[in-house]
Amino acid sequence: MPTPVIFIHGLWLHASSWQPWADLFTERGYQTIAPGWPGDAETVAQTRSHPEALAGHGIDDVVEHYAQIIGGLAEKPILIGHSFGGMIAQKLLGLDLGVAAVGIDAAQIKGVLPLPLSALRSGLPVLGNPANKNRSVSLTAEQFRYAFGNAISEQESQELYDRWSIPAPGKPLFEAAAANFNPHSPAKVDTANESRGPLLLIAGGKDHTVPETVVRATLKQYRHSHAVTDIVDFPDRAHSLTIDAGWREVAERTLAWLKEQGL
Fold first, then answer.
1. Which of 22, 60, 63, 229 can pair with 222 through a Cys bridge, CB separation 3.0 to 4.6 Å?
2. How far apart are CA 222 and CA 99, in angstroms?
3. Contact by Cβ (8 Å): 220, 249
4. Taking a C-beta distance cutoff of 8 angstroms, is the pair 134, 218 a contact?
5. Long-range Cβ contact pairs of 124-130 (< 8 A, separation 24 or more)
């Protein structure tokens, strides 16, 4: 039976943005699913029409949502997440709910200290107003270009924004921002788990939202575990690397790493 792969999106992108990846992984013999977060509708348009459905969902809600989906599978899946989806994938792997995980430009977990100015600016549309914690927030095309599309053309960034962008709950960003001040933060990951499956972290060297320094600081959080933890850097890529014209290079590197792990 094919190994299941769950693709987990992050903030401001709809689950259907994983479709090219899902098609490629299916061609390579995997069984793929890309479920949305709690409150996501089936399509981009429907999700935009009901932003209130997304509001108020935090990290724990999303983890539990995917844990329930995993519970319905015949075997533990490979977890592939982008941005906050990369954090969710790490949490699920730490809970031994996956055989392996790939965190692509993964949002910072508890214990990661660097907070570059570009990351603060990317989060400002949400974090700039405390009331947004219980709201859903949409990005403008200009904000999307700074946070996602800064390493691609303005035209491509606009096309990606029009095609995939959706409102996002503000709560996860507030939870991540306060993680190092909260001993019970939902952004905490069991990085010391010795029995977990292998983990690959992928960084984009031009990423404004999750800069490479954040990804490398995340890698250091796993230093107390002997489980496989690898990192791959794409120096010229930004936060759009899973959805822009260069997505396949990232997907192929991910597939090659999975093969190296015997998965």
1. 229
2. 17
3. no
4. no
5. 126/168, 126/170, 126/173, 126/174, 127/173, 127/174, 127/177, 130/174
Task: Check if the beta carbon of residue 169 is closer than 8 Å to that of residue 58.
Answer: yes
- Rounded distance, CA 206 to CA 165, Å? 20
Give the number of domains in the chain. Answer: 1
Question: pLDDT tens for residues 148-194?
Answer: 999 999 999 999 999 999 999 999 988 888 888 888 899 999 999 99
Q: What is residue 109's DSSP assignment?
A: P
Token pair, residue 192, equals: 């010391």
Can you give the CATH number for the domain in which 71 is found?
3.40.50.1820
pLDDT tens digits, 89-113: 999 999 999 999 999 999 999 989 8
> Distance between CA 28 and CA 203 in Å, rounded?
24
Measured CA to CA in angstroms, residue 201 lies from 33, 79, 168, 209 at distances of: 21, 12, 23, 15
> Whose structure tokens read 């001993």?
183
User: Both tokens of residue 29?
Assistant: 């013999």
pTM of the model: 0.96
One-letter amino acid identity for 36? G
